[in-house]
Each structure stands twice: as C-alpha cells, then as structure tokens.
Amino acid sequence: MKFIAKKPLCIIALMHEDLVPPDSTDGLTDKEIQPWKMEYDVCVTLEGMGHTVHKIGLRSDLVVIREALDTIKPDIVFNMLEEFDGQFLFDQNVVSYLELKKVPYTGCNPRGLTLAHDKALCKKILSYHRIPVPEFAVFQYGRKVKRPKRLKFPLLVKSLDAEGSIGISHASICNDDESLAERAQFIHRQSDGPAIAEQYIKGREIYSSVVGNERLQTFVPWELVIENLPEGAPNIATSKLKWDYEYQKKVGLKNQPANLSPELERKLSRLAKRIYRALYLSGYARLDFRMTEEGEFYLLEANPNPSLSYGEDFPEAVEHSGVPYDELLQLIINHGLHYHRNR
Length: 343
Description:
Elements: E1 10-16, H1 30-33, H2 37-48, E2 52-58, H3 63-72, E3 76-79, H4 91-100, H5 110-117, H6 119-128, E4 136-139, E5 155-159, E6 173-174, H7 177-191, E7 195-199, E8 204-212, E9 216-218, E10 222-226, H8 239-243, H9 245-251, E11 253-257, H10 262-278, E12 283-291, E13 297-304, H11 313-320, H12 325-337
Parallel strand pairs: 1-2, 1-3
Antiparallel strand pairs: 4-7, 5-6, 5-7, 8-9, 8-10, 8-12, 10-11, 12-13
Helix pairs in contact: 4-5
C-alpha cells in the first residue's frame, strides 16, 4: 500500500547536475538508468507520497543553492550530493552552507561527514573509544612507502578518502613490501592523494544500517556474499564487483540478511550505535564490518548518506525490517526536520 505523507512538503532535491533524472525511464536500459537511479527513485517516490519536489543540479557554484532557496523557500533540502567541484571531501562544505542558511536538510551533519570521510582519523577516534578497527598506516603522496613494523601482512591498500570502492581490486591485497609500495603508488597516481594500508581481516562482510539523531534505530544486519568466488581470491567489495552487473552475475553476488545468532545481532547493534555516536553522525548511515570466525566485529568504513537507490543494501535492510521504501524516505525527512545543530 502506498504511503501518503500526513503533511505535504515543499522539497528541494539537491544532486549533482549530471545526475538530474528525467521524468520517465521509458525506453531506457538499466545501464542508462544506473548513474542517476537513486536520484530518480527518491524524487519519484517523494512525489508519489504527495510532496512537491524541485530537482536542483549542482556542480561547483553555491549561488545555485542560494537562488533556489530564495525562489522556492523549501521546507527541507533532500541532500543527495556525494561531492562538490569534483572533490569528495567538499560535500560537508555544502551542508555547512545549508546550516549557515538555517535550512533543514536530510542526512549527515558537516562534522560527521568530515570524520567519516577521513578513514585514518575515523579509525583513530574509534581506537580511542576501544572499538575494534584494523591496524593501519597512511602513505602520503610523493613520499617513500615505508611500512611500520607493527603493520603485518596481508594488507588492503586503498584511497584515504575516495568512496564507492574506487581503486579497490584483488590487486589491492598485498603480501610483501614490494607489492605494498607498488599499490600505494598506484593509488597516489589514480586519486592524486594519500593511500591507506590496513590489516586485511578474513571473515564475513556485514553491514549495519542506522537511522536517527539522538535516538538511534538499527535494522536487520545485511551481508555481502560471493557464491562463486575464485579459489584463493579475497571476498572484498572491489570496484568491479560494485559497478559491473555482468561480473556480479558471474561471481554470484548476493546481498542478503546476515544469518547471525540473536546474541551477535544485539552485539552488532550496540557496537553500531557506539560508532555512530563516536563519529557524531546524524540522519542515516551504513556501517561496514568484517566479522571473524570468533564473532568479533571490526569496523572497515563508516558511510554516512549511503545510496538510497531502491534495491541497494541500505534500503533493502530497512525494508526487510518492516519499513517500506517510501516510509524510509519520510523517516529520513522527519529526522532532518528535527535535527538540532547545537546538540
């Protein structure tokens, strides 16, 4: 049954200007739809709930937002930006601007975005709170790659701040200093920024979805399963696995509810809430864990504002917990309307 909002709102849907979707997907292939599927799913669903949605595309000029706010005078901005001016780290600056304009918005606050985006800083904060994270080291661009003695192989090497599994492949797993140096330098060239090498932890890849500001709600743990993983290959979410649909079919990729004991589910829920609060997250987030055979959870990454594309891990986990997609979007809006910056 379709969910209808009790109070229709005037909403600015903020997105990258290249991802502003058309009004219809008629005649388009899945491959053509994929780049802006989230933006389309969100906008169409919000309109179906009775809200008025204004799609605003942004690239590198904040004047676009100012003019839209002055003209439209929205009740809230539904933020779907993942970067600004080509920089992943600049999305927090856009949210800061919305706060300066005193406009409610959905998703994470600037401080939470800043802390979560820096994978090294995130791990340092969580280590302080005695939350398990992999051992790691950061290798700056243009400097010699020298592994600290405390850092043991195998290691997973990736960009310090890039999102979406960019730069991650099976070659990212390094077992000696020579391959570590080669991979770190590859990341330097590809991202024009630092690389982080972290302890590779064998185990299951488990995702925890969290929604809320002060009072937090967790949902059914979700698991990434690769049924036809080549012998000896690590079960990691590579860029190819994330974005190549034909490859996903070939290796038997499945994202499904994680079969955990009630005790492990409670343990994961408590840990996810601790992490969410320690990183000052708000709105909604997906936390990526590796679970060892002994039942220990290590946080791999915190992902504020994960993809809301219908069928993706976060909305699927929430829907499997009894909250349909349209109600999830309304829940996210409600938390945006009630978020208090001073808290």
